[in-house]
Write a structure and sequence with these properties.
With 182 residues, the protein is mainly alpha-helical. The chain is built from 5 helices and no strands. 8% of the residues are buried.
């Protein structure tokens, strides 16, 4: 997939943001840890700990302008994917018959047939992957229409704007995504 200058700029912003956060975490972990002062244990039985109710999910949402911006990014990516799929389809189809290209045993040796089969399989894999990505983009458009776009489906917080510009079909904030990867 060809990257545009805009996508490269967005990716650079995301990388810089991630580097800054990594530096902050590193600085926070580098601070010397002071041993907590030990308190004498109370003799009396302490009162039971209060259970806090779950924090309500904030009602903050992205503005209509932001959603329109994200929608334009998604539509642009959909166009790129459609072009990629068209190119892959053209490589898989025989231009004379309009059918999927098959091996031509008359002109090919066994090794060439194996290479041809591997290339076809790789092309089908790329097409399948692009098709899945297209489905993710379609789901993101549906979430925009429903008003659910931009919220982490794990913690409920707003997903960072930079992340959504880099990965417009994201459904989790960066922190939740990193937790699920471990």
């Amino acid at each position: 997939m060809a990257k545009t200058k805009k996508n490269t700029v967005i990716a650079d912003k995301t990388i810089n943001l991630m580097k800054e956060r990594a530096k902050k975490r590193k600085l926070a972990s580098a601070k010397p840890k002071v041993a907590p002062k030990l308190k004498p244990k109370p003799v009396a039985k302490p009162a039971p700990a209060k259970v806090e109710p779950p924090k309500p999910v904030s009602k903050a949402r992205y503005s209509k302008e932001d959603l329109a911006h994200f929608k334009s990014i998604i539509i642009e990516k959909k166009k790129e994917i459609a072009e990629e799929l068209e190119t892959l389809r053209d490589t898989m189809m025989d231009s004379q018959t309009g059918e999927y290209a098959t091996e031509n045993s008359t002109y090919s040796t066994h090794m060439e047939q194996g290479t041809d089969a591997m290339e076809r399989e790789k092309t089908f894999m790329f097409a399948s992957r692009e098709g899945k990505f297209l489905n993710h983009l379609e789901d993101a458009l549906i979430r925009i229409d429903k008003g659910e776009y931009g919220r982490c489906n794990v913690c409920g917080k707003l997903i960072e704007k930079e992340r959504l510009e880099a990965v417009p079909h994201a459904q989790q904030c960066l922190q939740c995504k990193l937790k699920t990867r471990k």
